[in-house]
Amino acid sequence: MTAVAFDYTAPTTVDEALRTLHSPGLTVTPLAGGQSLLPLLTRREVRPDLVVDLNGIPGLAGIEVSPHRVRIGAMTRLRDLEQHAELATALPVLASAAASVAHPHIRGRSTLGGSLCHAAPAAELPAVAVALGADVVLRSVRGARSVPAARFATGAGATVRAPDEVLTEVVFPRADGLAYEFSELGTRGSTGYPVVGVCLGLHVADGLVRAARVVVAGCGPVPVRLPGVEAELADRPVAGPHRGLVASVAAEVARGPGPEDQEYRTEAAGVLLLRALTARAAREGR
Amino acid sequence: MSGAHQHIGRPVPPRHHDRLVRGHGRFLADLRAAGVLYATLVRSPLAHARIVGFDASAARSDPRCALVLGPDDLAERTAPIPTAWRLPGQPEDRIPIAAHTARYAGQPLGIVVADTPTAAEDLAEAVRLDLDPLPPAATLADALAEHAPPIVPGAAGNEAGSIRLGSPEEDVAAAFARAELVVEREFTLPRVNPSPLEPRGVLAEYDPGTGLLTVHAGSQSPHSMRQDLCAVLGMRADRVRVIAPDIGGSFGSKVVLYPDEAMVCAAAVALGAAVRWVESRAENFDGAYQGRGQRTTARLAVGHEGRFLAFDAHILADLGAYATQAGSGPHQVTALTLQGPYHVDAAAATVTGVYTTRVPTGAYRGYGMQEAAFIRERLIEEAARELDVPALELRLRNLIRPEELPHTTHTGLTYDSGDYGAALRRAATLAERPPPSDPPWVRRGTAVVAAVEITAFAPSALLETFGIAWSGWEGVRLRINHDGTVTAYSGVIAVGQGIETSLAQIAAEGLGVPLDWVRVELGDTDTAPHSDLSAQASRALTLAGGALLIAARRLADRMRTLAAGFLGTDPDRVTQRIGSRADPSSPDAAFHGTDGARITWREVAHRGYRGWGNRKDTDRIRLEEAVDFDPPQITFAHGAHAAEVTVDVGTGRVTVTGYWAVHDSGVLVNPLIAHGQIAGGIAQGLGQALSEEARADAEGVPVTRSFREYAVPAAQDVPEDLVIEHTCTPSTAIPGGFKGLGEGGTLLPPAAVTCAVAAAVPEIAHTLTSLPLTPSRVRAALRAAGITAEGGLR
């Protein structure tokens, strides 16, 4: 199939992009890495009047690591997240989650901002952004605003971004004392589409969990944090026993809406969490 | 024949690779045509509906529009497509182009032609369909439900007919009466999408001056397509020419004329212009005929000391909305091949075709034999488990031994040659290795399974006996040109498998000339000898190759005789000596007399074309041999596959960690191509084992419409430990001893993988009767067997 006929523009500054996006009455779609948008266009599931290509704007990409936060430009490619030396030290979970996405050809084009705005339910980076407590920065001709990642996605493929807004950067705090890791189950090996993902943050002292952060993706329309499971883990030996944990994850996730195979997915999320804890315990033990 | 030109058996790199890798491929979308227009099909969004209205007025009034044909227009311009292979009692024997009732979602109802592809899409959306919904029957169960409305108007129900193949009923009953163990299971083999890399496509050009319709099409069988187009459009055979350009895979999904392809041709005729349609991936999922689709109850009777007594099966075949040209054919092949390589006292199967409101099913690589292997090998594995004997031992005890061949099965197939036990033992040996240490949630298992493969399908008389309205013979024309170069013409088709290289090797060896003297021309009905079945049914190399070998030997004799005439000596005193890098006119490519006289190959060809030499009136002049080869019988390839899998009991994920295949396709012409064919077949088979299923919702509307929802195996899903070996028992029926191997690789992976999963987790073995083994399905079976997701973790 071919896309509907649309106009195309490639601004060279953010301001120019914002002015172009502010086109009341028109359906305007920003183009980032295009790895999700282009198939949607050719299948006519997205029918824009105008596509605004953000790839020619300098300054929308880049990783800036400072003592308390990491700022990442929206057009930063996932491949760059994966290979950035400072980021690997500051927030290694971002590199490992990025490396879990599809395969290198796709990661060379797809962007952090595009991934967040596409808001696929099982996607890796939105889940990590929620777990890390990131802020999503949006700009328009009307001004700039910052939205917590946990409130950014509102449903499968839906976010609070207004049609005339551009996601310009994502700001990750780095000082909450937890060490994060991301694990997932895909439709195939490591190159398939994600089915379920778990981002686990832990503070462990003397073999005991002092604080935990658990976010699961793929079990509902948006990534969800599981405060009940986090509380259950607190003060437990990280090595377990974690009796009933898989069931607790399922019970807490199942409170929300989910896909047809939610039962399978929630159980798998519990299994991923249990294995992440076991792996962490093994590392602690060394 | 010169010993310097032994080309058969050499791993020559396939000729088309260089061309394709450099971007010189010419696939359907690449073809140039002057003033070409673009078509989009208007397809039914509903699975079952009466078409009350097809309002194209908005589309027709758009300046970009060239033509719209709706159901009424198509009814005036087309006749239905005839079918070739029908079930007894089948209520319909034709497939309409013009439909006034849609029977599946995605069914083409009309066609829009415009000046650009985008305009054609826009205008197709502008056609307003008024549909009166009818109740869908999305599954076999829905279609066979007591009050299910008939899909074929006026029919009593949704059964399309039934046939029983194999042993007489009393023999089957007697064998089961003697049984010490009967294993009975119900198997579900889902519909799958053949998923060629290049979807279908047609470029049809009609010249009103000459009345000639030239059709470029991604067709696996251009002559069949031409015959069907003649019937549909009411045209003479010599006014339709079908040409297959480069084809990016087919796997059976491009063997017959489809209604949408016929609509593109009808539009070209109506416009007197060139019209191109290139199928989108979503359309390929919705509209290209699917493979498999079967629910089968089958049982195995086992007697004293584990001796197999009988196989019996009742196959419900999901034909979809129409019985296509070959209709229930694949399912009948399941029935024919259920017995496999084993001795039994009786074997029989009933095939019942069932109409459903889904896209029709048809040919797909393996053509019923994969289903037969899955059913049979699962029953055997289950019998071994219940008897508590090693499955390998049980199989070896019951295999037909080489000294017992030829052996005729209960369905009348005569196995010509092979050593089934050697392949099975070798595969089992290859798969033996110490298990690595796995995490507590991983179970590991290995299994080895066996099958025979119908190749060189089929003697024309056999097709006549079965009432299949196709021929089985294959013709070739081999020509030595006036410059001494060689051109071979064949009716088989290159679909990426490398057949043009293998055929060149056969011709070059038969003539005793360098390989690069030979060019192979395929795919054009104006030049290719007639072929009904062409490149399907693992037959291209065996039949075209066998014919070519005969033609080459004849032509080599004629060249020697001509040379002897020019040298003034007897043919048996002439020696053909051609250097391995010689060209046809060089002095080291010559015929030599005993007295030192010589004449170059090119000079012999050149003079031969002038009709010079001591020619008798009855001698032929043109240096061309046409050979039609009708095989005396089917020749049977065979193989054994071993799979090692891990099962993650927490996630249900099955991973194939090792795969070993031992194949016997007789004399291999090109081991490199043979390896590629088997490896590709295994990859496809792994997809059906683990991930592929063409699903629809309860209304019958497809939900797998892209590679996001439909997971074909990627490189990563094929184990690095993929070992392929060949044994060689030459065919006794085919010149050169060749056997086919186009489908062999794909027959066994579902059986091997599923039996390995059963070995890994015997607790769920009895439930492993349905494919694919998706993580959620395996996890559900594990859960039902009381195996918790924690998988040994605390």
UniProtKB/TrEMBL annotation, chain A:
> PANTHER family attached here?
XANTHINE DEHYDROGENASE SUBUNIT C-RELATED (PTHR42659:SF2)
Tell me the ranges covered by the FAD-binding PCMH-type domain, including all copies: 1-177
Q: Alphabetically list the UniProt keywords.
A: FAD, Flavoprotein, Oxidoreductase
**A Pfam family matched in the record:** CO_deh_flav_C
- Protein name, as recorded: FAD binding domain-containing protein
Q: Which domain of life is it from?
A: Bacteria
Record-linked PROSITE patterns? FAD_PCMH
InterPro entries per the record?
Answer: CO_DH_flav_C, CO_DH_flav_C_dom_sf, Diverse_Substr_Oxidored, FAD-bd_PCMH, FAD-bd_PCMH-like_sf, FAD-bd_PCMH_sub1, FAD-bd_PCMH_sub2, Mopterin_DH_FAD-bd
